[in-house]
Each structure stands twice: as C-alpha cells, then as structure tokens.
Amino acid sequence: MRFKSGLLIGIFGLIVVLLGGWFFTLATALLTYLALLEFFRMAEFKGIRPATKTTLFSSFIIIVSTYLETIGVLEGEISNSILPICSVGICTWLLLQPKSGTISDIAASIFGLFYLGFLPSYWIKLRGLDSVIISSNQSIMSFENLSNTTGLHLTLTSCFLIVASDIGSYFIGKSFGKTSLSPISPSKTIEGLIGGISCSILLAIFFAFLMNWENPLIVGIIYGISISLMALVGDLIESMMKRDAKIKDSGTFLPGHGGILDRIDSYIFTPSVLYYFFIILKYLN
Questions:
Q1: Rounded to the nearest 10 degrees, how much is the dihedral formed by the CA atoms of 239, 262, 91, 270?
Q2: 3-state secondary structure of 136
Q3: I want to staple 168 with a disulfide (CB 3.0 to 4.6 A). Which of 59, 88, 127, 196 is the partner?
Q4: Strand, coil or helix: 72
Q5: Which residue has the higher pLDDT, 16 or 282?
Q6: CB atoms within 10 A of CB 186
Q7: What are the TM regions of this chain, as residue ranges (predicted)?
C-alpha cells in the first residue's frame, strides 16, 4: 500500500507540473489546503484556536494571485499586497471572536498563512519562469508539446533533486548512519545528510550538463546543496511541530505515508530559495 500510494503521488505530481497553468496552480492550492488543515489540527492539540477558515481562504487567494501575476493579469505590487492584507484580515477576525484570542492563536494563524500559503506560492513563480541566463538546450531536453519553458525544466529538476536527496539520506543513513543529526528527529544522521547532499549534487550536475547550462559544475553544486538543505529544513520543521504536538503523523490521508504535510514538508522551503537563486544568476549574467 505504501508503494502504491507513493507511486500515485509521484504520477500526480509529474502530470500537474507538466501541464502547468491552472492545473498546477489548483493542484498546489489543493495540497496546501489539506496540509493547512493538518497543521491546524496539530495546533489544536496544543490548545491553540487559529483562524482556520480565514487562513485557508487567504492562502488560496495568495496562490491564485501569484499565478495571475505570472501570466500578467495582476501587477506585482498588487500581488505582493495580498499577504499583508490577508494578515490584517486574519488578525481582525480573531479580534471579533466572542472569546479573546491569544498570542498563540495569532502566531499559529499568521505562520500557517506564511508556511502553507506564501512559501508554496513560489512553486507557481518558479514554474512560470520563462527566461534565465542558464538557458536550456532545447534539442536535448524539450517538452514542446506541453509547455516549453525554463520554468518547467527548473520545477521538474527541483522535484527530482528533492526525491534524490530524500532517497540518498534514507539509504546512506540506514547503512552507515551513526552520528545523530538532531534530537528533533533521532533517526536522521550526519552520514545520511552527507549522502542526501551528495546524491542531490550529482543529479544536479547531471541536469546542468544535460540542459547545457553555463558553468554547469558550479551551478550544479550550488543547486544541489541548496535543494538538499532546504528540503532538510522543511522536514525538521515539521518534525519539530509533530514532536511538540505529540503525534507521529500529521494526518492519515495517504495510506502508509501519513498526512499530506508529511509528504510535502521537504517541498515547502525550497521554491523561494531556488526562485531567487535563479533570479540572481540572471542578473549576474
């Protein structure tokens, strides 16, 4: 069951990334909606009362407005205003409740908006990129019948690198792991971390040469390290929250895999770092 669930998740992810557009946007919105429900469930285990419905709606608005910005329907300034406006709306909602809110209620609501609304929206921005100076060689790797954009290549390769990092960390850690990485997640080891980073770097360099990027070795190394470390941060942050809430999995949505948040935690912090990494590369060239 675990293998089947994992395979279905992978196929679903591949299809929506290839399709792009509203398919990718709505899929991202759906996943973050389900993950937010799990996050708020963890918060409620701690006696926190977040503004659940308002935050869920606000996160959806952020993701949709980000896509509208990438296709030129919304100006960047208008899209950038959504996060602070929604934050004010969430705080106002908490003020209007019969029972006065607490610092924890506000913090959980605003963090939920940032964590599972704002940060995942960068996958939309990354997918929407259509010109970065590390230009792809379209004759080697082309998706002309789907959506022949640099954003497609970067989104696909980034997802593959996260998977490579997770697989490398698991198998190297299981085989050679002796030194604990963090008390937050006792099963993770420094050896596993090195294995995950190594796998991510090797695959990143392979993609860099395959797509004929400029300075493929240097870009591949930075790309691979960035992906692996950000995936680890996402994993540890979720582990820390589950540990605090005293639960094993964030939910039971996926048989054998736990909740949605358990599956996407490695994908939350990576897109914003990658997006600005490639934007900086663009300006440096």
A1: 90
A2: coil
A3: 196
A4: coil
A5: 16
A6: 11
A7: 6-34, 103-124, 151-172, 193-211, 217-237, 267-284
Number of H helices, E strands in the chain: 11, 0
CA distances from 221 to 32, 84, 206, 225, 228 (A): 30, 35, 10, 6, 11
Q: Determine contact, residues 231/165, Cβ cutoff 8 Å.
A: yes
Q: Is the pTM of this model over 0.85?
A: yes
Taking the CA atoms of residue 14, residue 208, residue 134 and residue 27 in that order, the dihedral angle to the nearest 10 degrees is 10
Half-sphere exposure of 257 (CA within 13 A, CB side): 19
Q: Which residues of 45-71 are buried (b: 16+ CB within 10 A; e: fewer)?
A: eeebbbbbebbbbbbbbbbbbbbbbbe
Q: Is-contact 41 3, C-beta < 8 A?
A: no
Q: What is the pLDDT of residue 2?
A: 53
Rounded CA-CA distance 267/235 in Å is 9
The predicted pLDDT at position 4 comes to 65
pLDDT at 220 over 80: yes
Report how far apart the first and last C-alpha atoms of the chain are (Å, whole number): 48
For the chain, domain boundaries = 2-284
Tokens of 85: 């406006």
Q: pLDDT band for 247, please (50, 70, 90 cuts).
A: confident
Q: What angle do CA 228, 233, 236 make, to 5 degrees?
A: 120
Sole residue written with tokens 């997918």: 127
